[in-house]
Design brief:
This protein is mainly alpha-helical. About 80% of the residues lie in helices and about 0% in strands. The chain is elongated, with a radius of gyration of 30 Å.
Length: about 475
């Protein structure tokens, strides 16, 4: 019998036994009597409830287990772990400190300590306990993973990368780990390090699918799409049912603006997982790029039907409705997106545009204020907000907003030319002339914006003289 077949039989046996144990345990709870379970059965019951986010049930199962096996230290640790999951940190800390008196070197105890500190935002103490856990760990790989992210949270990218590499080299790497690893390498501008790691793993094991996928992700990040595609093709040879391979094919063809090819691969990803809202979203996005707006909306609609909390789906439908000037309908969808992601500046920006197009001035101002608070690096918001105020005869307020925007975008000529126009209209002529010179020194050609905003400004000899000074 093959190893895979043995694994399948073992899993089937485990799930059957777990189901039987759960049924007996829940029947006992229901009838409020007692029954015998061995330690393994009870631990599996506790873990089952944790995996289903039923923490109170897991806590109760731990308590029952400790009543049956008062000297079993595993259940004491499991109780502390469940208390951390429940957010009862003080009680968990008390339990751990009591346990530590007689079991100071216990690896599992240090792991639970670390997760407690991570949950309370103390990444430095988490690092200390993960490192202590490594000293006596039977399986170091999961600790490498968690330690990498704890180091990341402290801002120590050097050690974060070191431990994520140890995790990947242990053979436990996966798609999401590779994504984080590559993101961290990008921050220190050292993608070549990742490329060498994945190539080393491939040299040792040419059929390591995740290493090929990591190599593809590195190539994609470098905009080396041909090598990325070659690596993904190797992935498909190794495992033709790996969803992320098809998704990455889709992302690459989308980046290459080959939207029809991208759709083919996103559809294949969706066939492998018919609850994959990301694939549906990208199919819709590709159709939107192709100007097939009705088709795009169908896919976005499918996505939010599967996951009503998929904010990008609601937002994208709103944007499509904006293309057709269906402002009221768009507002409905954009508000749904904002309910889900209240701190998303892009969503507020779109809602503000809708309100502005409906002449709902105060509502638009509120939306734009939210955008500049959440996303001041968005260059467009400062101009849109200033123009809204300008069109409402609030040019002095527009001047104030543009000054504020230039604190974030000191080299944005477009902002300078808009500010010049607003100052000119507000009668601040000397300030307008100075601002014009600033804009011209950054990008001379963009001064045409000024004539679009105020056609009559061409008759101002001072304006023309300043523009002439910066020509060539």
């Amino acid at each position: 019998m093959s190893r895979n077949k043995n694994n399948e039989n073992d899993n089937e046996f485990f799930h059957k036994n777990l189901k039987d144990s759960l049924n007996r345990y829940e029947e006992m709870q229901k009838k409020n009597n007692s029954a015998f379970f061995d330690t393994e059965e009870l631990m599996d019951i506790c873990d089952y409830y944790i995996s289903n986010d039923e923490y109170q049930k897991s806590f109760d199962a731990c308590k029952y287990a400790m009543g049956l096996y008062p000297n079993n230290t595993s259940f004491k640790l499991k109780e502390a772990a469940v208390l951390v999951k429940m957010g009862n940190y003080e009680t968990a800390l008390e339990k751990l400190k009591k346990f530590e008196v007689t079991n100071g070197n216990d690896s599992e105890m240090h792991i639970i300590y670390a997760h407690l500190y991570l949950s309370t935002g103390d990444s430095f103490n988490a690092v200390t306990h993960f490192k202590a856990a490594l000293e006596n760990a039977e399986d170091s790989a999961p600790i490498y993973h968690d330690l990498a992210f704890a180091f990341h949270d402290t801002g120590d990218y050097k050690n974060a990368i070191k431990y994520i590499e140890l995790f990947i080299e242990s053979g436990n790497g996966d798609y999401y780990t590779s994504l984080h690893y590559i993101q961290w390498l990008t921050l220190i501008d050292n993608l070549i390090r990742g490329q060498k790691l994945f190539e080393k793993i491939i040299d040792d094991n040419p059929y390591n699918m995740h290493a090929w996928l990591g190599k593809a992700l590195i190539a994609k990040e470098n905009l080396d799409y041909d090598n990325a595609i070659d690596a993904l093709e190797f992935c498909m040879v190794i495992d033709e049912n790996e969803i992320h391979v098809y998704q990455e094919f889709g992302h690459i063809f989308k980046a290459k603006e080959q939207y029809k090819d991208a759709i083919v691969y996103f559809e294949k990803a969706f066939k492998l997982d018919n609850e994959n809202v990301s694939a549906l979203y990208h199919i819709g996005d590709c159709y939107e790029y192709l100007d097939y707006f009705d088709k795009a909306r169908e896919y976005y609609q499918q996505a939010i039907k599967i996951n009503p909390y998929f904010a990008d789906g609601w937002y994208s439908i709103g944007v499509i409705l904006m293309h057709s000037d269906k402002w009221y309908e768009a507002i409905h969808y954009l508000k749904k997106a904002i309910e889900i992601e209240q701190e998303n500046g892009e969503f507020w920006f779109a809602l503000g545009d809708c309100e502005a197009n409906l002449n709902h001035h105060n509502e638009a101002v509120e939306c734009y204020e939210n955008v500049i608070e959440m996303d001041p690096q968005n260059e467009s918001i400062w101009i849109e907000y200033a123009m809204l105020l300008y069109d409402n005869n609030e040019s002095l307020k527009a001047v104030e907003i543009l000054h504020q925007g230039l604190k974030y975008h000191v080299d944005n000529a477009e902002l300078f030319f808009h500010l010049c126009a607003m100052q000119y209209e507000s009668g601040l002529l000397q300030e307008a002339y100075t601002t014009l010179a600033d804009g011209l020194s950054i990008d001379y050609d963009l001064h045409a914006i000024l004539f679009e905003l105020i056609p009559g400004i061409k008759n101002d000899k001072n304006i023309l003289r300043i523009i002439e000074q910066y020509k060539n």
